[in-house]
Amino acid sequence: MQPKRKLDNSWIGRCFLSIFLLGQVLVHIVQGKTYYREIFRHMETAGPNSISPVLLVNLFAGMIFTIQTARELVKFGAVNTVGGAFALAFCRELAPILTASIIAGQVGSAFTAEIGAMRVTEQIDALYMLKTDPVDYLILPRVIACCVMMPIMIIFALTTGIIGGLFVAFQLYHVEPEVFLDSVRDFLAPSDLYILVLKGIIFGAIISINGCSWGLTTKGGAKEVGESTKTAVVTTWVAIFIMDFILALSLFENPIL
């Protein structure tokens, strides 16, 4: 039972570390300490280098969701609402969640592995010797890159999902593209797009902060780096779903926008 208690304490400690690390990042952003070259490098990792799986997953997710919804709506003669029903669910939930999950698995895990490897090989200690703050050089660029690229990736994901839904609606249920797109425009409001961007920024912060915090607390060797990477991805997914529930409850059940 003792190893389990140590593991529980480790999880609690790392959760507090993530919150503390977020506070440090905010302070350093206000102070304007940034390495722009590192930001652009990580933006490439979180954006162009991750675009293929994001688009592919959202394309097929859009097709699958349209099959499930259009079949029932067509039965009730509500063909004009197929695009709108699809757009609301996909814009508000599916596109942000699917995109964040993929980025967490691909980018967040890379952050944990890179920083964890630097921790166990004492490269982070070397940064202190060079009078370089690891938060400025390692954490801040990754957080900014994720927060900037996540909303962009979600918008691409939403567009791809709508294209997939439009294709399936036309090919299988003979819903004209004009009818589908008109329904999308009628149901979606500007506030939905604002919320999409807000979710992208929050999910990007969760992915980067959680990945970096698990990397910073890695001890041991290569095995521990792998374990930290695996656990970082799982905890990030859990945090994303919890935050999505909180946002859905506050933004849609009691709208503030």
Q: In angstroms, what separates the terminal alpha carbons?
A: 48 Å
Q: Can you give the helix content as a percent range?
A: over 70%
Query: Helix tally?
Result: 9
- Our estimate of the beta-strand percent is under 5%
Task: Describe the protein's architecture and organization.
The chain has 257 residues and is mainly alpha-helical. The protein has one domain. Helices cover 86% and strands 0% of the residues. It contains nine helices and no strands. The protein has helices spanning 2-31, 36-46, 51-75, 82-120, 123-129, 134-173, 177-187, 190-216, 222-253. The radius of gyration is 21 Å and the shape is elongated. The chain starts with a helix and ends with a helix. 39% of the residues are buried. Residues 1-9 have low confidence and may be disordered.
Key attributes of the depicted protein:
single chain; 257 residues; mainly alpha; transmembrane; Permease_MalE; MlaE family lipid ABC transporter permease subunit
Write a compact overview of the structure shown.
With 257 residues, this protein is mostly helical. The chain has helices spanning 2-31, 36-46, 51-75, 82-120, 123-129, 134-173, 177-187, 190-216, 222-253.
Secondary-structure topology with pairs:
Layout: H1 2-31, H2 36-46, H3 51-75, H4 82-120, H5 123-129, H6 134-173, H7 177-187, H8 190-216, H9 222-253
Helix pairs in contact: 1-6, 1-8, 2-6, 3-4, 3-6, 4-6, 4-7, 4-8, 4-9, 6-8, 8-9
